[in-house]
Amino acid sequence: MDRQTVISAKHLKKAFGKGESMQVIYSDLNIDIYKGDFTVIMGSSGAGKSTLMYSLSGMDKPDGGEIHFDGTDITKLNNDKLAVFRRKQCGFVFQQIYLIEKMNLMDNVIAAGVLTSKDKEDIKKRAKELFSLVNIPEHTWKKTSSQISGGEAQRAGIVRAVINSPNVLFADEPTGALNSANSGAVLDVFTSLHKKGQSIVMVTHDKKSALRGNRIIYIKDGKIFGECDLGKFEQDSTERTEKLDKFMKEMGW
User: Fold this and answer.
1) How many beta carbons lie within 10 A of that of residue 4, not counting itself?
2) pLDDT tens-digit map of 48-81
3) Which of 2, 37, 104, 182 is the most exposed place for a label (fewest CB within 10 A)?
4) Is the distance from CB of 188 to CB of 212 less than 8 angstroms?
5) CATH for 5-250, among 3.40.50.300, 3.40.190.10, 3.20.20.70, 3.20.20.10?
């Protein structure tokens, strides 16, 4: 059975600077993202992982090429239309937790939900379901991010990112600022969302995080240097870990 492509990028070009100081990030990069996949983008520092993710999500425009996202060439959209498109189609989770400090967790989520829906009660109902999914108890919903742990704040950030049922959830080093225990809890949320059918694209340099994906893409010198199919996630799978270790060694990690 053919896999359904949700994002198809062709001949992408991106560079920073001009003249002798120009840094070419990628010059002719092609990539497809498939619906229902947990795609992990890896590569050495400066390889362009995050830049590629920002291009695929419409947060940053490439200098050339096409990006067809659910049938729409987002490189042709102006900034206003692109903002509306992102709001409806994308969810974002970053290393930095961008919750509004003056608002409690529930209000943070509702504020994101009303951007695409006027049914506040429906938003609140979905928020409660998602808070339950990420193991944030009801007594925590009225707390602000400064009153909870970093792991809880990041999980609340994921709830906010998926409250509008995005086509694709994008994550850039989502566990980079967390300790081991909190990282594991956040990764469990991504795994749960993926099992429910959520398409995810995650940038990471962490192999424990990468193990959660089913498709690993390695970027090097502005190109896709290699791919690895890990299949369905299994906790504490020695075979899965060994397969990723072998792939990363082949990539020169």
Assistant:
1) 10
2) 899 999 999 999 999 999 999 999 999 999 999 9
3) 2
4) no
5) 3.40.50.300
